Amino acid sequence: MTVTVVGIGGSLRANSSSERALRLVLSGAAETGARVVEVSGPDLVLPFYDPTEPTRPEAARRLVEALRVADGVVLVSPGYHGTVSGLVKNALDYVEDLRGDERPYLDGRAVGCVATAMGWQASVTTLTSLRSIVHALRGWPTPLGASVNTREVKFDEAGECSSAEVAEQLRTVGRQVGGFAASRAKRW
Questions:
Q1: Coil/strand/helix, residue 63
Q2: How far, in whole angstroms, is CA 13 from its chain's centroid?
Q3: How far apart are CA 10 and CA 20, in angstroms?
Q4: Could you give the dihedral angle defined by the CA atoms of residues 119, 124, 129 and 135, in that order, rounded to the nearest 10 degrees?
Q5: Could you report the per-residue pLDDT of 94-144, keeping only the tens digit for each?
Q6: I need a surface site. Which of 26, 29, 63, 143 has the fewest CB within 10 A?
């Protein structure tokens, strides 16, 4: 059985550090045989989540449906003022639309978390915020989360990481999501 891992992240800047980190994490998930779906940048430009508004724009419906069928999830956020970007947080607010599902929210799914920021403080506090959000959404944060200090680590135009160690950490997060998703799928 092929599992699906949905990656959410990035920023409005095309090929941002967080978007490139997302792709490395998803490559790790793909190594486990998972089918990967990337939701980044322009895909995350959504109206502010409004639980009282029953109609959703097409982009929001695609996001919610991708999460509905996801066996695992990857979240990558740039650190904005020490926490998750508004773009990523708003996308995560749409998970509320899964509250009435048989698997509500992110229940029973491994979720890999990665934060990128220009310094350790913002990258670490953003990672902590992501992991707290995952707990609140009933997801299972992977044992390894990654903080990427973009003052020290760069991504080139091809998406390659200047640090082999960081690149391996990112792929490991993806492998943990894919592996956990596959082990859960076999039991159900």
A1: helix
A2: 17
A3: 8
A4: 150
A5: 999 999 999 999 999 999 999 999 999 999 999 999 999 999 999 999 999
A6: 143
